[in-house]
Design a protein that fits this description.
Layout: H1 2-20, H2 22-32, H3 36-65, H4 67-87, H5 91-118, H6 125-153, H7 155-174, H8 188-194, H9 197-226, H10 231-259, H11 262-278, H12 285-300, H13 303-316, H14 321-350, H15 353-373
């Protein structure tokens, strides 16, 4: 069991590492390839777009072919696409590599967690999930470091080396025993869950923070570069941001267990609205860097209660584990895509203030909905203990 927990953690570590590595490199690609904010947003959003496309197929494959095969397929394609990204020198090549990498990541995530939960006793699942997610946070922490190293040592050499090394996970996973999949659930079960009002509400609180981070991950590094920070310094800013976010999520998880998820979400909405209004204002790099570091834990405070509720509701409906984690990818990915690509395009057309004010407006509207739910039975907002203190797949400052 310990080996399987380590394997699942290693899988999500490399996935989040590769995802987060782009952030400090984004100004470099924007300058070298003449991408602009729109092109940078497309490049940043290609990975979650692939994850969205791969979400349902990964759940189907896990339910029918088994979690182990799903992991092996995902890991192999992620490694190949990482090397391709490192060697790419055209915008369309980079976009394609990131898109395929994101799709493969959906397979490795869904397979890893389905495999882990199927082998874990019910009373120990919370600890198993928490341990695996802790390594995802580590990947988000070291992703900007990897990007900074690539900025110094060379993108091609760095990503090729790490991509080849990650193939060792494929060999390791192939030696692990796995149970044969049981009778697969029909896909209609996943569709029914998506239109269930409580699931839809929980779905939004995984999608919404991804939307916030999608905008931040594109506009913040470009603005920091314009104010004079280099790749290494930008990587350091996002490293600090991810570290603070991970610490905050532990506290938010514990608070959610004690008082339910409504209060943490309401507080996060208020703070996120304020931070979103402030982000386009600084014209000094240190002030903006401090604000970005503050934004990560505030924006990320939705993830733990949102995922707690979403996974709890999926389990209550008796969803197959593959379908349950497909729900997580289906929620996170479109938010990240819309935030990165849509936020970049809006900033290109109307300036950075426009997307940030739009996010602040969404915070206000969502807060009004949360207040309405105070008297509603549509979503009880009660916390399930299983996900306490854990971070989502593509945590914050990634």
């Amino acid at each position: 069991m310990r080996r399987l927990t380590l394997l699942a953690g290693a899988v999500v570590f490399f996935d989040t590492l590769f995802f987060a590595a782009l952030t400090p490199l984004l100004p470099h690609y924007a300058h070298e390839l003449g991408l602009g904010k729109t092109g940078a947003g497309v490049l940043s959003g290609a990975y979650p777009a692939g994850a969205f496309v791969g979400a349902v197929p990964s759940g189907i494959v896990a339910a029918r072919a088994g979690a182990k095969r799903t992991v092996l397929v995902g890991l192999t394609i992620v490694a190949v696409c990482t090397v391709a990204f490192g060697l790419g020198d055209r915008a369309w090549l980079l976009d394609t590599a990131r898109f395929l990498q994101g799709g493969a990541s959906a397979f490795s995530w869904t397979g890893a967690f389905s495999w882990l939960l199927a082998a874990t006793a019910v009373e120990r699942r919370g600890a198993a999930i928490g341990s695996a997610f802790a390594t995802a946070v580590a990947g988000a922490l070291f992703g900007p470091v990897l990007g900074a190293i690539a900025g110094v040592a060379g993108v091609g050499v760095t990503f090729t080396t790490v991509g080849v090394l990650s193939l060792g996970l494929v060999a390791w996973a192939s030696t692990m025993p796995a149970e044969r999949p049981a009778e697969p659930q029909p896909l209609a079960e996943l569709g029914a869950a998506l239109v269930d009002p409580p699931v839809a509400a929980a779905f939004w609180f995984v999608l919404f923070p991804a939307l916030l981070f999608g905008v931040l991950d594109v506009l913040a590094p470009l603005r920091l570069a314009a104010l004079g920070l280099g790749t290494v310094a930008i990587g350091a800013v996002f490293l600090c941001a991810a570290g603070l976010e991970s610490v905050m999520n532990v506290g938010v998880g514990r608070l959610s267990d004690r008082v339910g998820t409504r209060l943490p979400i309401a507080v996060a909405l208020c703070l996120s609205a304020v931070v979103a209004v402030l982000l386009p204002l600084p014209d000094r790099r240190l002030v903006l860097a401090a604000l970005v570091i503050l934004a990560a834990p505030v924006f990320g405070a939705f993830f733990t209660p949102g995922m707690t509720q979403l996974t709890h509701l999926a389990e209550a409906r008796g969803l197959d584990y593959g379908y349950a984690f497909a729900l997580v990818n289906l929620a996170w990915a479109p938010g990240q895509v819309l935030g990165a690509a849509g936020g970049g395009a809006l900033a290109h057309a109307a300036g950075d203030t426009a997307p940030y004010l739009a996010l602040a407006g969404l915070c206000a509207l969502t807060l009004a909905a949360v207040w309405h739910w105070r008297e509603s039975t549509a979503w009880t907002m009660r916390s399930a203990p299983a996900s306490s203190g854990s971070s989502p797949p593509t945590t914050g400052a990634a």
